[in-house]
Amino acid sequence: MSCTIEKILTDAKTLLERLREHDAAAESLVDQSAALHRRVAAMREAGTALPDQEIESQIDRICEMGEVMRKAVQVDDDQFCKIQEKLAQLELENKELRELLSISSESLQVRKENSMDTASQAIK
């Protein structure tokens, strides 16, 4: 499996967008729950309260939706953490490879200079 920094960054952006969508959906659920509670309170005040079974059913439904959203956010958080770890690993590996390349380039330069010195001494 080949992972590039660009792919990881793209995945991180996608996950961030999904987290924002989940956050918006969670806010919507909270708003729906608040609206339901206001509706129930208003009906109680007016003396036309919903039957307890219907209230419980609606509350259970909202709680189930909230739990689904929490699980989805947790999955996205886990994926985002894995991507961040992989990105950090790739950045470290990149740094180490650059250092090795630098050492190799310096070694080649020294060899080249030595061979030039040797060649110029042989000519003299």
UniProtKB/TrEMBL annotation:
Gene that this polypeptide is encoded by: SIKE1
Keywords noted in UniProt: Coiled coil
InterPro entries noted in UniProt: SIKE (IPR008555)
Name of this chain's protein: Suppressor of IKBKE 1
Function text: Physiological suppressor of IKK-epsilon and TBK1 that plays an inhibitory role in virus- and TLR3-triggered IRF3. Inhibits TLR3-mediated activation of interferon-stimulated response elements (ISRE) and the IFN-beta promoter. May act by disrupting the interactions of IKBKE or TBK1 with TICAM1/TRIF, IRF3 and RIGI. Does not inhibit NF-kappa-B activation pathways. Associates with the striatin-interacting phosphatase and kinase (STRIPAK) core complex, forming the extended (SIKE1:SLMAP)STRIPAK complex.
Top-rank lineage group of the source organism: Eukaryota
Keyword flag Coiled coil: yes
Family indicated by similarity: Belongs to the SIKE family.
Organism: Ailuropoda melanoleuca
Tagged with keyword Cell inner membrane: no
Pfam families with a match to the protein in the record: SIKE
Quaternary structure annotation from Swiss-Prot or TrEMBL: Interacts with IKBKE and TBK1 via its coiled coil region. Interaction with TBK1 is disrupted upon viral infection or TLR3 stimulation. Interacts with CDC42BPB. Interacts with SIKE1 which mediates association with the STRIPAK core complex composed of PP2A catalytic and scaffolding subunits, the striatins (PP2A regulatory subunits), the striatin-associated proteins MOB4, STRIP1 and STRIP2, PDCD10 and members of the STE20 kinases, such as STK24 and STK26.
